[in-house]
Amino acid sequence: MAKTHYSRFDCQPGCSVEAAVSLISGKWKCVVLWYLLEEGTLRFNELRRRINTITPRMLTHQLRELEADGLIHREVHAQVPPKVEYSLTARGRELTPILMALKAWGDAHIDLFGSKGTAGKPFTTASGEQK
Amino acid sequence: MAKTHYSRFDCQPGCSVEAAVSLISGKWKCVVLWYLLEEGTLRFNELRRRINTITPRMLTHQLRELEADGLIHREVHAQVPPKVEYSLTARGRELTPILMALKAWGDAHIDLFGSKGTAGKPFTTASGEQK
DNA sequence: CATCACGGTATCCTTTTTGATACTACTGGC
DNA sequence: GCCAGTAGTATCAAAAAGGATACCGTGATG
After folding, report:
1. How many CB atoms lie within 10 A of CB A8?
2. ipTM rounded to 2 decimals
3. Measured between alpha carbons, how far is residue A59 from residues A62, A129, B20, B120 in Å?
4. Which residues are A88's β-sheet partners?
């Protein structure tokens, strides 16, 4: 193996866990990943409308990071008006068990959020507030 | 259901995932959790020595957040010199499948780290650098 | 008497992350 | 001619996170 890379043996236990978490820990990243997991392919403004409080700047930023980390694919169609589609890569789809486990845990311990602790308050949403 | 709490129906899909991730996304948090998972109970300086580049300030900070979020238990023994033991709570132990899945994913996609993308470089460690 | 280990604090500073607001080029429909 | 929708940028500001360094009281050890 290349010496410039690190192998799993170079670092202490928990290091790869930390590394993996760091890829999905930006604000809205999990929400984006979850939508892409559920709906397959979404355009920029489709995501934006689903996460209605996000600013375009933040959405762009998170999408670019997810793309740089190889978790999502960005496809630009050369047309006007512009059409850019986002979808999970194979690597991104491999996060599925993690996201499911996180969701299960999150739903099970939902009483934590909003009351005490360090977690931010849940946000309201375009799809959540009308019905 | 109480209006002051949120139910899983108040928020969009992915919200609970995001909430769960936010609890484990501080720097070193996963490393700490992993050590506690592996070794059961550890004292402050035991953790500190294992993660040798962490400052006491950061260790304290992360431990207090994990405690506030109900993931770890902090037990102070009234003696001198002080003895403080940290261990996972039941809730913390329920993170096991998540941490395992993250480790599996991280190890499988380890080529990502250090080269490109947004992930930080892996760190060297007390236990990793001698052999 | 000085030093070490214990489990932290206090203070200051830098970096990173997030947010608010305004703006772009282009085209199709009214 | 004007407005809406497309996918973003640019700029500035605020807030949060992280890092460096020094320090605390206590008690045992040398």
Report:
1. 14
2. 0.85
3. 5, 21, 20, 21
4. A72
Q: Mean pLDDT across the stretch B80-106?
A: 96
What is the DSSP pairing of strand A41-43 with strand B83-88?
unpaired
Instruction: Compute how many other C-beta atoms are within 10 angstroms of the C-beta atom of residue B53.
Output: 11
Contact criterion met (CB below 8 Å) for A25 and A65: no
pTM above 0.90, yes or no: no
- Write the CA distances from A119 to A51, A116, B129, integer angstroms: 19, 8, 35
User: Does an H or E element contain B20, and which?
Assistant: helix B15-23
Are A30 and B21 inside 8 Å of each other by CB? Answer: yes
Substitution target from B24, B67, B91, B98 for chain A, most A beta carbons within 10 A: B98
C-beta separation of A10 from B117 below 8 A: no
Cβ contact, residue pair A122, B68, below 8 Å = no
Chain B residues with CB under 8 Å of A101 CB are 97-98, 101
For the four alpha carbons of B104, B106, B107 and B108, in that order, the dihedral sign comes to: positive
